[in-house]
Amino acid sequence: MTKITAVITAVGKYVPEDILTNKMLEKMVDTHDEWITTRTGIKERRILKGEGKGTSFMAIKAAQELLDKKKLDPKEIELVIVCTATPDMQAAATAAFVATEIGATNAFGFDLEAACSSFLYGMSVAARYIESGRYKKVLLIGADKCSSMIDYTDRSTCIIFGDGAGAVLFEPKEGIDNKENFIFQDGKTVFKNAVFNMADAAVKIMERNNLTNNDIQWLAAHQANKRIIEATANRIELESSKVMMNIQNYGNTTSATLPLLLADYEQELKKGDNIIFAAFGGGFTWGSIYFKWAYNS
Fold first, then answer.
1. How many domains does the chain have?
2. Which end of the chain, N or C, is more open, meaning fewer C-beta atoms within 10 Å of its C-beta?
């Protein structure tokens, strides 16, 4: 029996036009650019503005870019998964609306929420649907309008988060072996647990697959804090040139950080590159995935 392996065959992204810089935040809360940059690595973040624009708006834009680049008929998509902590509505799935708007009329859809680990978990789910042989095209989107749940008078959280979306297409490759409504954060506890759990998960996934740091081309870690990313890289003894990072441009976009990394680094990725994905989120949730890149741009 031929083994089916799930691979990513296309990526897309969307970030809002409006930029919120550290200098702008200085006028909003008691903080300053040097303090933010030193502790987080963030210089600016994107904010989605406009009446009625929610997470689905960005998810649709990211999906449409992917479809255009891939020259893919949306009717070929069989499943749409939207990973998000900020769905448009509590009951109706954002994925269902996204599928309708992009013309994926033959697809069913659902949302997946696991804080900042959402997209990482979504990768595992999407891959399993492909590997089962049931579906051949699964659209996985990570999107969050973090600005909708941020208290911009709270300097401990408003400096961290931004809005954005990223999308990837999973397909089979056969014949391959192997204030109560606002967000709150205890920074020190999160930092300690993120460094330990995310780095530990990355180490375990490498050990399980008999990989050394020399076998790894890239680390794609959740973009929550530059120091956490660097600590994870240090734990697996990976040189800085192999570490994907764009936190300086977008801040923490929650579910969108990992697909945005893939979109921004797509031109540098080579077929066969070994990538270690690692994520950590509120709750706490964390995990790591070993992934082999499937195409040259």
1. 2
2. N
Domain co-membership, 167 together with 194: no
Whether residue 83 lies in the annotated active site: no
Query: Are residues 200 and 157 part of one domain?
Result: no
The active-site residue out of 83, 158, 222, 225 is: 222
Q: The domain containing residue 251 runs over which residues?
A: 187-292
Which residue in 22, 246, 249, 252 is the catalytic one? 252
20-51 per-position pLDDT tens digit: 999 999 999 999 999 999 999 999 999 999 99
Active site residue 222: yes
Say if 88 falls within a structural domain.
yes
Residue 116 annotated among the catalytic residues of the structure: yes
Q: What is the pLDDT of residues 53-99, one digit of tens each?
A: 999 999 999 999 999 999 999 999 999 999 999 999 988 999 999 99
Assign 3-class secondary structure to 189-237.
Answer: HHHHHHHHHHHHHHHHHHHHCCCCHHHCCEEEECCCCHHHHHHHHHHCC
Domain membership flag for residue 90? yes
- In whole angstroms, give the CA distance from residue 80 to residue 145: 19
